Amino acid sequence: MELAKSHLDNIKALKSAILQSRYRAAALVNKELLSLNFAVGKFISQKIEEEKWGAKVIENLSADLQLELPGLRGFSATNMKRMRLFFESWEEHLLISPSVTAKLKTIDLQEITFSPSVTAKLENSFSNVSFTHHVEILQSTKSLEERIFYIQKTATEFWSLSTLKNHLNNQTFQKTGSLPNNFSKTITNDEARQKALQSFKDEYLLDFINIQDSDEKDERVLESEIVQNIKKFLMSLGSDFAFIGNQYRLIVEDEEYFLDLLFFNRRLQCLVVFELKTGKFKPEYMGKMNFYLSALDEYVKQPHEQPSIGIILCKEKKNKIVEFSFRDFNKAMGVSTYKTSHVLPAAYKGVLPDVETLKKLMD
Prior knowledge:
- The chain has helices spanning 2-51, 55-68, 77-90, 98-101, 116-122, 131-140, 144-157, 161-169, 172-175, 183-186, 190-199, 218-228, 230-237, 284-299, 319-326, 355-362; strands spanning 203-206, 241-252, 255-265, 270-280, 309-316, 332-340.
- It is α/β, with parallel strands linked by helices.
- Strands 1-6-5-4-3-2 form a 6-stranded mixed β-sheet.
- A hairpin with a 4-residue loop joins strand 3 (255-265) and strand 4.
- It is globular and about 80 Å long.
- 26% of the residues are buried.
């Protein structure tokens, strides 16, 4: 028995070492590839400026590289233009050696070094994001702050390219922390309040939902669609959310109450309730949510956990009505809206997969 246990321990130790080594190797390869693409982008940018290269020169360069290195991947004319974008988008935030900048006949591979203010924000993130992800972020963002946000999220939450595109289309950066809430009054700890603000969005894109109208009866349909596509909903929420269940049963004074969706957030260390409304926000929703949160904190919350948070997810809201509705409640609550594929802006239609495609991906 002891021999078998020892053998299993040895296997676990070897497995851990192998996986760690592979991860480090992959990270080093990605870092080296980013340095190469950055250096090539810098070379092309300088040639365009100094020698007035045109698009035809880059296309010929790409074709000749294929002849010199048969089977070479990643150096199409389109990709080389992306390398130029990669360099030029970061150039003003870099620390570049003048001696290297002056060289146009050689391409020096160096570690990408940012100015101190940017380095602090991108430490341990930039090199862990693939070139394809970087390009997608650069093509879809406008400010440095927004760019850094998506790089950090991609690195720390291991976003796939499709997940990143979904967050970019949903404008996660603009919507994170912007939902109407009463956190300033109900969450007294500054750090906890900031974490709560960063954990919720003003609007969620639920492109897997297929609801034709906004009748009250459709709230159960909305709930059912979310539960059937819970992986997609968790992607919309962001990291650290764990799904506990739908129609979660509470008993208060021998009466039953059912919460639409109940989650636990590891970062916030608290229970999170989502109440679903297919119509406009109404002030009376606050009283019901406050009651649910009080009951959760009394009967379900563990001693080491933080007080519960409630989010009312509705189709429409008017922020002033929401603001007035919050004023006399002592439980942390917010109001968000959701958008489905039926009301996507025209520019987004065709970019995101349809419902049937998503269902196939989930199978």
